[in-house]
Every structure is written in structure tokens, then in C-alpha cells.
Design brief:
The protein is α+β, with helices and mostly antiparallel strands. Among the domains are: about 280 residues, Alpha/Beta hydrolase fold, catalytic domain (Rossmann fold, 3-Layer(aba) Sandwich); about 80 residues, no CATH class. It is about 15% helix and about 35% strand. It contains 13 helices and 44 strands. The chain has an eight-stranded mixed β-sheet with strand order 37-38-40-39-41-42-43-44. Strands 1, 2, 3, 4 and 5 form a five-stranded mixed β-sheet that branches. Strands 14, 15, 16, 19 and 20 form a five-stranded antiparallel β-sheet that branches. Strand 22 and strand 23 form a beta hairpin. Helix 1 packs across helix 12 and helix 2 packs antiparallel against helix 13. The radius of gyration is 26 Å and the shape is globular.
Length: about 725
Amino acid sequence: MNSILALLLLAGSQASEVPPTPDADGSFLRQYAQTRRFLAGRPVLPKPTADGKAVLFLRAQATSAAQSLFELEVATGKVKELASPDKLLQGAAEKLTAAERARLERLRISARGITSYRLSEDGKKVVVGLSGKLFALTRESGEVVALRTGEGAPIDPSFSPDGSQLAYVLGTDLYALDLAKNRERRLTRGGTAQLTHGLAEFVAQEEMGRMAGYWWSPDGKRLAYEEADHRPVEKLAVVDPMHPESGAEEFFYPRPGKPNVAVRLGIVSAQGGPTTWVKWDSAKHPYLATVRWPKNGPLCLLVQNREQTEEILLAADPKTGATKPLLTERDEAWLNLDQFFPHWFEGGSGFLWYTERNGGPEVELRRPDGQLAGSWVKPGAGFEQFSGVDEARKTLYFTGGPDPTSGHLFRTVGAGPPERVRVGTDGPSRQAAGVSKNGEVLVVATASLGAMPRTEVFRATGERVGELPSVAAEPPLEPQVEVRRVGKEGVFAAVIRPRSFKPGAKLPVILEVYGGPGHRVVLHSMREHLIPQWLADQGYLVVKFDGRGTPGRGRAWERAIKNDFTSPLEDQVESLRALAREVPEMDLSRVGVFGWSFGGYMAALAVLMRPDVFKSGCAGAPVVDWADYDTHYTERYLGTPQSNPDGYKKSSLLTYAEKLERPLLVIHGTADDNVYFFHTLKLSDALFRAGKPHQVLPLSNFTHMVPEPLATERLYQRVARHFAETL
């Protein structure tokens, strides 16, 4: 028996033999798991056609993961099914390749069946990839055609601008398909597992938000594509411990301070042939962050330096590969990427650009040569997400607002002041929106503390057309959430009380934490607070805080964590104490902390560094040593281990292993290819060698997500049991 296995057995043996904490609402936890958190059956990925006459969307049944494709006719409000997995596969079981599974993991999609689709530019055709096969649908006739008969599973299919061709990646090379003849042709050669053509590399998908690895020219005669050379990058292996006979699956994974993928951008004819390589100083700016090839604008690429403190938007000549800079953006801490930008106007008159140069998110109008022409959304407006542009009316739509716990739909005409678009609910809520290309139709998804997401269709005038129908089960409880601001910094806080709460009675506290950049937990959205309410009903006050480092409160607030990931813990502690002064029922002698991913890191850090505050912790999939996470994320905030050794040491959980005084449960999927399972093994080993009792719950062959219903149910039961035993 090796030492690692012995360590896991020792850790597991420390659990006392007490029955699991009962489900406070009987069937709630099982229903929560079986309905994929009450999200199965709700419309997802809604897309209006360019003419605004229809809205397409995906939806599963209430207790199913298999999604089908539907269409709502705007004029009549009628809904029809366009395609289903069962019909497309004629009853055969769905099979996913390793590449397809990895792509869904990067997208955090736990659904199956039809998980994505592409519309042709004119909206007449749809392409769907399913179980390694491609299907083309004609919307008007309902005709479905199975494409290509060759081996292999096409990845990321997309239409040419005129809808006559498809491009996709097969294996590690780029291909095109003539739809009229159903004839496939290979566009690139020499692709291998180490040298891929047309695929976005890991950090582009996981950290940049860029899933695409190729781009059509506006006339459909050429494609730009990424070549990713993985040969310099080390490999990490994932083994299913329950099936060692299956061997290891290896992934290229660049760790801080170590070699990254070497990326080039090539241009190839849609008929195949030689590649023209785009030229830029890739030694100085190695990251290919964003690519655009607009209808009446230049082929553009946004490249970043490794420190992510400088980025240059380049215009490329497709014939020669020569480039010229349009603009340069700098930030002494780091630059945030937004994949919606640059957004070129169809007529080629200029483009919209995102910046935080003036203290907060701002959307600028730029001329075709990159020169500043004005500001369409100024800092302080609370810009959060681009929703679309009505070019004819010079109207920009976005979601956001001054309150980061909410996020409503706004529009601005030219450089005019933002105006709230009164659709959905008037109260505090979270909205996401899309706009048809002609600006006539708005698709708005709205969630609030009192309601799960619902997606409605409106005309630009505000007239409600209808709702994308949901068949989802509704939660049997409504979270009792109070949102407030606490402390001298006015940190946003959420308090979830038991539904049987009696004022004056002291209750133990569970801090549900994330605390990291790019994510908030204090939101006016029911879905975010269902499990916290389930925990609260078992006799706790559950609290959440969005301190420094979280988005939505300006550049300085977000960048306060630069070079030190322990600093957000100070805000959690100060906010906890400030809230207790306002909520006397909080028993600060019994405080537990729970989080996942960065939140798992924060939960473990809390019990290690502040045992005076936190009496128990549960850390899910924690990053233990930031030198073992990926380059693009970690170096953005901490620099490299070579440039900031003290910051890496201070931010590592291993530094504090000898200080553990409180009960700690660590949970981790053994097949996690984002935060690898060895993070938890390193922490457990350090705690074991320091003589510090702790518990480890390995989730066999699960990744960073735990989508299986039974595992979800058992996971939260185990978390509740841990706090019942220790608080």
C-alpha cells in the first residue's frame, strides 16, 4: 500500500459514526440534484435571428440532461421543436469524445444532447453537432440532413458568411465542407496532438473566454486559424483510481513561470493551399487573446504580453501577413479581457472598444484607424456585459448598473446617458439580454431573489411578445435573503436565515465564500441561494460577502488583491464582524466556512490563518499552491514565481499547514483537469506530516463539476454533516 493511499484511508477514518444530517425539507436535496439545480427544463442559449422573426433556444425536460432545439415565432408566439437527440441519432445512445468532454468542461456545461448550435448569417440554416456527427437543418422546411460520412468527430462547426460552407476541426486540422455537395476538404496539414490547427488552447478556453480557434473571412474565401504548438508545455496526467487498468489521460497544462503554448495566426484559402502567417512580436506579446474579421473592416487580432499589463490591437493584411497597430492599452496591475470587443460596425465606420483606463468599465467609440472618437458608456454607469447594437439607431444595449448585486438592461443612444429598458421586473434582479441584428427584438432573461430565471421576448419598444416556455420544476422553497452593506468599505453582504428563524436566538454561522477575482456571490438571484437556504434551515445563519478583488466596484477595488491572494480574507473577517454588530443572532464563537475552487482555497486559508474566527472549514477543489495553477489566470494577479516569490509563498496553503487547529474537510474530484487532484494530495500530505488531523473526501472520476444527481446529493449531505459535527 503506497503512502498516498494510506494517507487517504487515515484521513477518511477520522469521521465519527453519526447519521447524516437530515434534509430539512425532506425531498429538497434530491429534487435539487435530479433537476440539475432546478435549471433543467429552462430555456438556454436563446438567439434571435438576424431579421428578428424568430428566437431559437435549447431546453431539456425537468429531470433530464438531454437538450433539444426549439424555435419561437415572434409574430405568433408559437413554439416548435426543430431537433432532438433522439430523432437525430434515431434512438442511439450519445457518445462523447475526449475533446468534446473537455470542451464542455471549459464551458461549464453539464447538460448533454444538443449543447450548442450555429445559425447561418441569414438565419435560414442551423448546424448541430451531436455524438461526433454533424446535422444541417433548414428552418423553413424542417429538413434535416446528416452531413459527412467519414471518421472522426468534428469540433466547433460554423457557417461561412453566405451559408454555403461549413468549417470545423477534425482531429487536429481544419476542414471545410461544401453543403450543396456534402463534400469535405482538408485545409491544413501537419496537425498532431502537439501541434493543433484551428483549436483554441487550454488557457484561451479556460481563462480568456475564447473558445474559437478559426475565423471566416467576410467573403467566405479564406479562413484565419490558430496554430498552437504545445511542445514546450509540460503534461499532467489524470488517472481514474477506480479503473487503473484504463491508464492515464494526459493534458497539456502550463504552470506559472513555465513555458506556454506557442501560438501563431495563419490565413488559408477556403479551398486549401499554403498558409500566410500573420507577423507580430510574439516574443513580447505571446498571448493571442481575440480575433475579429469584420464585414467591412480589417482582420484584427488582440495580443497581450505575458504579464497582461499591455495589449495591442493589430490590423493584419491577409495577403502578406503584415500588421499595424490600431491602439495600445496598458494597466500597471492587469488588463481584463472582454471577448465582445472590438465590436466593428457593419459599415466599417469604426468599432466599439472596452477599457478601464479611466477608473471603471467604459465603452469607447473608435475610428477605423483606432483613434478615439468618443465614449458611449462612461465609467460609473456600471457596464457589465455587452448585449448588442442597433446600428441604424446608433443604440448600444448592455446589462449592469450602479448596484453590482443587480444587473438590468440599459441602452444608450450615441454618447447619451444610459436609459433603463423597462422589461422584466422593476425590482432588484439579474438580467442577461440579446438583441437581434436589426435591433427590433430583445431577448431578456431575468432572475430575482423570488424567482428562478425566466426568458422573455420583447420588441425594442418594450412591447412584450411572449416567453420562451419553461418546463422546469420550481424550487419548493424561497430563500430568505437579505442584502445589505456592512463595514467602513460598504462591502455587499447577504444574510440567509432559517425559514423558522426566531429573532433573538443565537445561531452558528456558515460563511459561504468565493472571494476571488471575476466572481460575485451577493446577487439578487434565487438560484445562487438555494443550497445556502437548505443549510440555513438546519439551524444556521448563512452569510456571504463580496470584498476587494470582486468586480463591479471599479478598477481600484478589483485590483487591490494584486500580488497577494491572502488579502481578500481580511475583508471576509472584517465584514463578518461588522455584520454581527447589526445581526445579534450571529454566534461568532461558532463560525464555519465553505467554498469551491477559489472559494475552496479561501475556506482552507480561513481555518489555517484565522482559527480565532473560523472554527470549522470545508474546502471544495481548492487551489493549494498557486505555482501549480495555470499561467494566464495566476500570473495576471500574482506575476510569476520568479518575479514574486514572496507573493506565491504567502498565498500558498502549504505555508500554513503547521498552523491547522480546526476541523477541515477537503473535497476534490480525482479527474479534475482545472484544479488537479494533486492540489488536495499536497495539502493532505503537508497536514499529515505536520501531525494535523483532517479529512479528505475524494470524488472518484469527477472533474471540477459534480453533475451526477446522486453524487450532488451525497456531496451536500456530507458538507452538512461536517458542520453538524464541528459547529
